[in-house]
Amino acid sequence: xxxxxxxxxxxxxxxxxxxxxxxxxxxxxxxxxxxxxxxxxxxxxxxxxxxxxxxxxxxxxxxxxxxxxxxxxxxxxxxxxxxxxxxxxxxxxxxxxxxxxxxxxxxxxxxxxxxxxxxxxxxxxxx
Length: 127
Ligand SMILES: O=C(CO)COP(=O)(O)O
Description:
Keywords: Lyase. Residues 1-127 form the MGS-like domain. It comes from Zemynaea arenosa. It catalyses: dihydroxyacetone phosphate = methylglyoxal + phosphate. Helices cover 51% and strands 16% of the residues. The chain is α/β, with parallel strands linked by helices and 127 residues long. The protein has a single domain (4-126), classed as 3-Layer(aba) Sandwich (Rossmann fold). It has a 5-stranded parallel sheet, sandwiched between helices. It binds 1,3-dihydroxyacetonephosphate (13P). 1,3-dihydroxyacetonephosphate binds next to helix 3 and helix 4. 1,3-dihydroxyacetonephosphate (13P) binds next to helix 3 and helix 4.
């Protein structure tokens, strides 16, 4: 079965998520991808990935992805948060990360962990 991966990045981390996704683009093309609105737009436009785009994060996109996760529709979350900038929708961000912990879904919140998660998933698909 195709891995189902959610991709999210705060504004100052969007270049990082595009760079990260570019490194795994062949693998990601074979996944079912979901993203918050602006992140998904960049990944689609710049890498040609097919992604189900939810609302932008501050408008409920994190919550929409959280709801999908709670329903068992997501295998891993790559969520490059910006720890240096306050976000207006901090409760939504915390809700999504908490839902990952409640449901034991892998959640990478920085690039180093994202590499570990993506390379492991890619390896599992190759087997
Ligand atoms: O704010 C976000 C996550 O909390 C990301 O939303 P966008 O991808 O729409 O910028």
